Amino acid sequence: MKKITDIFFDLDHTLWDFDKNSEISYGIIFSKLSLDVDIITFLSAYKQINIHLWKLFREEKIDKETLRYKRLRDTFNVINYNITDEVIYKIADEYIYYLSKQTHLLEGAEQLLEYLKPKYKLHIITNGFQEVQVGKLNNTDLIRYFDVVVNSEMAGVKKPNPKIFEMALELANVKKENAIMIGDSYEADILGALDIGLDAICYNYHQEILPTTIKQVNHLNELQEIF
Fold it and tell me: Sign of torsion, CA 108 114 118 124?
């Protein structure tokens, strides 16, 4: 890693605890709207539906509004909860509002950034929606660690599209040989980076079985041993 000067991070499921913050946000909303929904049952169905729809969103097969609506409609259908579209749209709007205000980070995230910041330039490349991701970075004060933040709405494309990585490298004014990508998504973060010749390390948050050729860690604190 001696040649590395810049490190690019994904945000959700890499530094920011998406699952915990999402659970808190939906809990607030269901309580506020007096919905008799068991949060554990809801999230059990929602998680896989959301992953599937985000994949379609990355592949440009659905747009942002369809993603926001369908992940709720499909989840309520699966758990057999009768709910109107009007309430679903209300939940979708409230979710975006409350989600960005949650501040739970993954274990070891802040310690890692404190360790890396004096040694490297740090940046973010995220597929998340701009208004939400900016809120997450500001409300957690993570923004102080990063020089460049690139999201898919700025770039006009989503990871793993090479254009978003190229844009981030250009804005950071760094050659790909001197940079590395760290993220949880094998498809979006790791293959996306490797396809343009940018080195990558998978933070295997989802405990997937990955090819042995892929650099990976199972806990963020392992990265301190690498860098």
Answer: positive
